[in-house]
Amino acid sequence: GRRRHGRDDAARGGWSDSRAASIGSVTHVTDVCRWDVPGRVNLIGEHLDYNGGPVLPLAIDRSVTVKARARDDGAVNVWSDLPDASKVSFATTVQPGDVDGWATYVAGTIWSLAERDLTIPGADLVIESRLPSGAGLSSSAATTCGVASALDELFGLGLDTAEVALVAQRAEAGFVGAPVGLMDQLAVLHGTAGHAVLIDTAVTPHTTRPVALGWEADGLVLAVIATGAHHALADGEYAARREECERAAAELGLEWLAQAGLDATVMLADETLKARTRHVLTETARVRSAVTAVGRRAWPQLGTILTASHASLRDDFEVSCPELDVAVEAALEAGALGARMTGGGFGGSAIALVEPDKVQALRERVESRYALHQWSRPEVFVVHAADGAHRVPAPGARLDG
Ligand code: ADP
Ligand code: MG
C-alpha cells in the first residue's frame, strides 16, 4: 500500500509492548494511541488572528493521523509518509536548532511541552497524512496538534484543548520560527462537521462558537484550488505584516488594530500603515457580514464578501501573489459566487463557493490559465466541514495492522 512508514521494522514491531512509562507522578494511561486531526480552510477573516479580530475557519475532511507509542529511554523517533522522509530521532530535551527539515514541527511540539515542564519519557511517532503539506491547509497545525494530543493521552498530561492549542502554537512560534496566531490550532481542534468555527481573538483565552454552514443543502460546495506555489518571502512578509499592524495599533493607542474606528486610516500618516489598517478594519466588518449572510443563507452575498476579501488582501494587505490572483479570477469566470485566497498568502490555496456542476469547468479554467503561465498544474477539490481532532480507537494494541 501507500503507507510508507511500514517499511521500517522499528515502526512496525513492538507496538503491543506494555511499558511502564511515567511522567512526574502521572502514570501513562495507554501504551499506544492514534489521533486524527483535520486541516482547515479559512472561510474569511484573514490576518486577523494576531489583530484581535474575528476569524471564521472550518476544519476540512482531509486529515493527518498521528500514532504514538511510549518509550522510556529519553528518545523520540518519528516516521512520516512525506516523500523522502526517513526516520528522524532526537532527545526529549531537544532545543530549537537541533532538528531541521520535515520533523521540525514534531520536535517543536516535544520542546513546547517541555517548556511547560512536561518533558515526556520518550516516544515513537508515526505521521500519516491525506492533507497536502505546505498547501496552506494547515498540515502544520494538524501535525502539532496531533502530536500534542497523542502525547497528552499517552502520558496522561492532562492538557485541555486550549492548552493543546497553545503548545502547538508555541512549537511553531518558538521552535520553527513562524510567529503564527492561534486560528489554525483552534480551527483544527474545535471544528465540527457542517460548521465553521467563529473565533474571537480579542479575548484571552479566545472564544469559539460553531456556525452552521447550510450551503450544501442549497446546492453549493466549497472548492479548494491548491496553487502549488509557495513563495520564499512568505515567512518574512508574514512577520513584516505583524510588525506593521503592531506599529499601526501603537500609533492609534490601541491594544488590537481590529478595535480601531473607521477614522483610523485618516489618523495614520504612513500610506503603508493606512492600507494595512484598512484591510484589518474592512476584513473585520466582512467577517461579521459573512456570519449574517451564512445565517440567512444569502449565498450570493457571501460570495461577494469573499471576493471583496481577496481584493483587500491583494491591494491593501499585499499578501497575494499572481498564482492566487489567477486562481480567484478563473474561479469567478467559471461561475463561482465568490472566491478568495485562504491562509497567510504568497502561495498556498484559494477557495471558491460554487455549484457542484461547475467544479469541473472551474478546474479546467484554472488549469488552462496556469498552463498559459507555464505554472505547474494546480489541484482542485471539494471540501466539507469536518470534525476537529479526535482520538481513533485502535483495535487491540496494534497500530500497524
Ligand atoms: P501548511 O501548514 O500550509 O501545510 P507549513 O509549511 O506551515 O504548511 O507546514 C508544513 C510542515 O508541516 C511540513 O514541512 C512538516 O514539517 C509538517 N508536516 C506536514 N505534513 C506532515 C507529515 N505527513 N508528516 C510529518 N510532518 C508533516
Ligand atoms: Mg502551516
TrEMBL record:
Domain GHMP kinase N-terminal residue range list: 105-191
Query: Any idea which GO molecular function terms this record carries?
Result: ATP binding; galactokinase activity; metal ion binding
Q: Where is the Galactokinase N-terminal domain?
A: 35-68
Q: What is its EC number?
A: 2.7.1.6
What GO cellular component entries does it have? cytosol
User: Which processes are annotated in GO (biological process)?
Assistant: galactose metabolic process
**At the top level of its lineage, which domain of life is listed?**
Bacteria
Q: Where is the GHMP kinase C-terminal domain?
A: 292-370
Q: Which InterPro entries match?
A: Galactokinase, Galactokinase_CS, GalKase_N, GHMP_kinase_C_dom, GHMP_kinase_C_sf, GHMP_kinase_N_dom, GHMP_knse_ATP-bd_CS, Mevalonate/galactokinase
Q: What keywords is this UniProt entry annotated with? A: ATP-binding, Carbohydrate metabolism, Galactose metabolism, Kinase, Magnesium, Metal-binding, Nucleotide-binding, Transferase
Show the NCBIfam families listed in the entry. gal_kin
Family indicated by similarity: Belongs to the GHMP kinase family. GalK subfamily.
The molecule here is called: Galactokinase
Q: Which organism is it from?
A: Aeromicrobium endophyticum
